[in-house]
Amino acid sequence: MDGGIPRFSAGGPQAFVEAAQAGNREARDELIRAYTPFILRVASQAAGRYVVVGQDEEVSVAFSAFNEAIDAYRSDQGSFLRFAETVVRRRLIDLFRHRERAQGREVVWSDLEATLGEEGEEVALPALDAAAEAAWRRAEEATQRRWEIEELGRRLAQFRISWEDLARHGPRHRDARRRALEVARRVAEDQELARHLVERSELPMRRLLEVIPVHRKTLERHRKYIIAAALIWIFDLTHLKTYLMEDGPDGRP
Q1: Residue 64 near residue 91, CB atoms below 8 Å
Q2: Which of 6, 56, 82, 195 fits as disulfide partner to 51, beta carbons 3.0 to 4.6 Å?
């Protein structure tokens, strides 16, 4: 995807996953379109190379698995994207195993594989000792953080905002930061405001002044920081959310 956000939820994927599960085809299509970069990233990592749409079998398997994850996901299973990543990786491992068998070879995947239990929850495999599993998890999280940083950077570029801009213009004081985060959260949770932000690549200043008791100078002074924080919430960049968390686990200031 290169622009719009899923129209069924401005606060992350859960709400429009539920819409897709209820039979809303448009919600499912929007979800897949919005997270195409995520799907391709997971497929490329699993394959150990960049995969190409319309050329590599891994791509079609990954999209099919993501679609499967939409149907299988339950809200008590944690982050949808983490759940979907596990499903995609499992299906790709199945593909690799099938290829190896077809070539008369057998590769042992048990030391690397993460799988799902009968109820869909992610479980650790006994083949991994605690230290090895912890190292594997850290590597996975580091990869996910890098992808999120790259994704946010790409989104910010559409607003002509650089990382240096954020460093220079971010709020310095705690109270100012909390006010800016509150504005960003309101943008992310309001469908109209979120769509305006993403599709027009601008902060909806006039509408914000109508619905939020905030001074125009505050919006103008911290505009770039507000945009970045709102994008993190809108696109559910899980690891980057931790940098916004102050008083609670939900990422709210």
Answers
A1: yes
A2: 56
Where do runs of H (alpha helix) occur along 53-79?
57-72
Residue 119, φ and ψ in degrees, nearest 5: -90, 5
C-alpha–C-alpha distance, residues 114 and 243, integer Å: 27
The pTM assigned to this predicted structure is 0.53
Taking the C-alpha atoms of residue 216 and residue 179, their distance in angstroms, rounded to an integer, is 13
pLDDT in tens, 196-245: 898 888 888 888 888 877 788 878 888 899 999 999 888 878 778 877 76
Spell out the long-range contacts of 248-252 with Cβ–Cβ below 8 A and sequence spacing 24 or more: 251/185, 252/181, 252/185
Q: Report phi then psi at 71, rounded to 5.
A: -75, -35
Residues in the chain: 253
In which residue are the tokens 């609670």 written? 248
pLDDT tens profile 147-164: 788 888 888 998 999 988
Rg (CA), the chain: 20
In the numeric block, the tokens 């129209």 are attached to 7
Mean pLDDT lowest for which of 10-14, 59-63, 194-198, 240-244?
10-14
User: What residue spans define the domains of the chain?
Assistant: 35-128, 155-241
Q: Report how far Cα 116 is from the mean position of its chain's Cα atoms.
A: 20
Site of tokens 């990954």:
62
